Structure formats: C-alpha cells, structure tokens
Amino acid sequence: MDWVTCAHSAACKGIARQPYGYCLAHLQPEELAETLGAMIPGRLLDLRGTLIDGDLLGRVVEATNGRPGRTRLERATFTGDVRLSGVTFTGDVSLDGARFERLASFFGARFEGNVSLAGASFARELSFHGVRVRGHLSLDRAVMARDALFSQAVFGHGLSCERARFDGYATFDDASLGDGASFRGARFGRTLSFRKVTGGAGFDAAHFAADAYLSATGRFSASRARADGTLDVVVGDCQVNLRRMEVAGGTTIRLTDSQADLEGAVLRGPSTVTGRGRSTLTSLRHVDAADLALFGLDLSGCRFAGLTRPAAVRVRNCTFALTPRGVRVSLRWPMLRWFSRRSALADEHTMRGWDPPPDGQFAGQFAGPSGPDGFSAPDGLAALYAGLRDHVDDHGTSADFAFAAMEMQRQATHRWWLSVSWLLWGYGMRLGRAAAWFGLLVALTVGALFWTSTSHADPRADPPAVHR
Q1: H helices of 307-394, where?
Q2: pLDDT tens-digit profile of 91-133?
Q3: What is the DSSP string of 385-418?
Q4: Contact, 303 vs 285, CB < 8 A?
Q5: How many domains does the chain have?
C-alpha cells in the first residue's frame, strides 16, 4: 500500500481520513458527516482500499453533487449495487484492483479524463452501455464473471482489454472506439458481439470459447487468435491481419474495400472470404483449410506457396495476376521464347523474376516448399496449379492453370519430352501453336518439292531443223 491504512483493523486497507485515522467506512456518524461535508465538486476524491456499500456510495455522490474530480478508488470493494447514472467525473478515474460484488452499472455516466479498471473484478453484471469516455479506458487483466455490456459506448482515445477475461456474454455493438481497441490475450467464455463498431480493433492471441461476431474499420487484427466456435468478421476500408488464426467452427470473412492476410491460418470448418469493392487477399501461405471459398476478391498479389490443401479451395469471380506478353531472350534453353497473356499466381511472377503485377501487393518474402531465398519452387507451384484448376469458376482461368501446371512441371523436371510438347503444341492446350507448326511444315514441304522439281528436271532441247 502506498497510503496510510485504516486503524480499525489490520484487515482494513481503506485510506485513513485525517485527523481521525479511520477510513470512510469506519468513521463515527458525526465524523462521516463532517468528512462528507468537506467534499467539494470537481476536487480530488480519494477512497483507496475502502469498503463501500450502496448507502455510502450514494452519500459520496450526493456530497460531490455528482461531479467528483480526480477519483482514486484503487483496491476499493463495492459490496452493494453500483449505479452511477448521471454522474460526471471531471478528472481521471482509477479503479485498479477494485472489487465489485454486485451489479456495476456506469450507464449514463460521463468521464472527462482517462479511466483505469486494470485488474478489477466484477462478480455480477457490468454495464458501460452508452457511456462516454473522453480519454482512454483500460480493463487490462480485469475479470468479468457475468455479462458485460459496452454497446453504444464512446471511447475518445480507445479501449484496452489486454488479458481480460469475459466469462459471460459480451457486447460492444455500435461502440465508437476512437484510437482503437486492444484485446490482446483476452478470453471470451460466451458469445461476443462486436458488430457495427467504428474504429480499429486487435484480438491478437485472444481465445473465443464460443461464437464471435467481429467488425472494425481502419485496422483489424486477430493473429494467433483461437476460436472454438463460429467466427464472423465484417470489415470496411480496413487492413486485416489474420495470420496463424485457428478456428474450429465455420469462418465467414466479409471485406469491403479492404485487404486481408490469412498466412498460416488453420480453418477446420467451412470457411468463406467474400470481397466487395476493392478487396484483396494478400496471402494464403501455409493455410490449412478443410473447405475454403473465395468470392469477388483480387488475388493478383496473393501468395499461395505452402497452401496445404489446394483442392479444398473454391474460387468464384476472382481476378489473378497476368503473365507478361511478348518475346524474351534468355541464356537458358530455349534462348528465344514468346509469351502469351494468361492468368497466373503471384508466386510464379516471383519465381521467374518478372515484375510484380501492377495491382498486386507484395508484403515480405515469398516462402515455398523448397527453393532458394524462401521463394516458391516449380514443383510446389505445379501442385498448386493442379489443385486449383478444377475449382476455379472461369473456364479460361482454369485452362491457364492447367497450362501453368505443365509448365511448372517442365521447369522442375527438365524432361525433354515436356519441352518438345511445350514447343510443338503447348501441352495440347495451344492449338494455334500446333497449327502454326503444321503450316510451317506444309510450307517447307511444298517449297522443297518445288525446288526439287525445278532443279533436277531433264532439259528438253528443240528438234533440229530439216532443210530440203
């Protein structure tokens, strides 16, 4: 304790009121009346470690005219219902380590400064519904044994609930998070409703023991998070980090003008990622998904290397990167090559050393099954193309992936017959190339026949004239 404690007993940790030497809870009636009468609205209110019942709390609120200033309630214990509707705290409020044995309702309260409830415990319901906090609210390491309501609350400089425990139902619907909210390492024992929230949110390493419905704007992160039930994420105009997330139930991710990264995620249930507007997926590296559907996304910069089950990915109405077009000269065989435009994975661009797609977003290194510098190897890309080709809705893209699978296999094995197949008829998928070779062969044959017939024909001399 960094304060002089009450002389009533060694068990009482309440701050002593001078000159009596006792805390507010153990003052004599006339001493209590005198102490309360000396309280001034807007001035410091110090009740650290004090045992506060409902009657005493009401008298303190009345004495400060519902407008206490800087408020210190660290390690205070509230034995009765806490109802602070209409109270305005004009200074910072500290409730670190406080205990609430019954209802804790801050509904309708206003906080002009910062609020700290770090390490506080709530045995019953907690309500911050509609509360306005001009500063920052901290609930780090707090324990909420029952329902926690934060809907329609406004946090001017954000909210922190790192390593907090929500054992009951928790709702933050329609809350405004200001500078954002952090739930790093938090645990949610029952359903979490985080819908229509304004501001960024981070749930890194959080544990959702039940269903979770999440939303955010600007920034959203749930890397290394674990969800035992359904996970539903809705974001707009947002950078989304879902790396190494693990979900046991179904997963639904809806992006609007957003960019998401799912690298290393484990999705055991049916999963869907849907994009609207300008929405991109930047990485599916090392993703293990039993059933993953991608709809309406820009995949031109998406990294697929290490995707565990390509055949479990269904692609609908998505765009991929395009290969460069034209003739290129190389020191390797064949030295002269021509490229036609086709759909391709961004990993192939990197492997071949092509410039990245103009619309693709490459963040960090590409890592593949083998290959130097963490880049995708041809054999890994061949497996990716072969697994994805049958689950792409666009027939042209599917055909391009089939061609790319053979091309990567040729690059990996260097078998001569694959090179001949590529050169003559494009693995049976470039009929124009075969027609061109056939036309060239016909032209050469006709030319050879014509040259042979004209150069080796017997000369026919005119018969000699007969003179009579």
Answers
A1: 346-352, 378-389
A2: 999 999 999 999 999 998 999 999 999 999 999 999 999 999 9
A3: HHHHHTTBS-HHHHHHHHHHHHHHHHHHH--HHH
A4: yes
A5: 1
pLDDT tens per residue, range 147-186: 999 999 999 999 999 999 999 999 999 999 999 999 999 9
pTM: 0.83
399 within a domain of the structure (yes/no) = no
**Is 231:247 a contact under the CB 8 Å cutoff?**
yes
33 secondary structure, DSSP code = H
pLDDT tens string 395-418: 878 788 887 777 776 665 555 444
Q: What's the gap between Cα 328 and its chain centre? A: 40
Sequence length of the chain is 468
In a domain? residue 459? no
Residue ranges making up the domain that contains 274 = 40-322
SS3 call for 138: strand
Q: Is residue 464 part of a domain?
A: no
Q: CA 57, CA 82: separation in Å to the nearest integer?
A: 8
Contact 391, 315 (CB under 8 A): yes
For 362, phi then psi, to 5°, come to -100, 115
For residue 392 the two structure tokens come to 């792409």
Strands 154-155 and 259-261: unpaired
In contact, 182 and 160? CB cutoff 8 Å: yes
The letter for the amino acid at 305 is: A
448 assigned to some structural domain: no
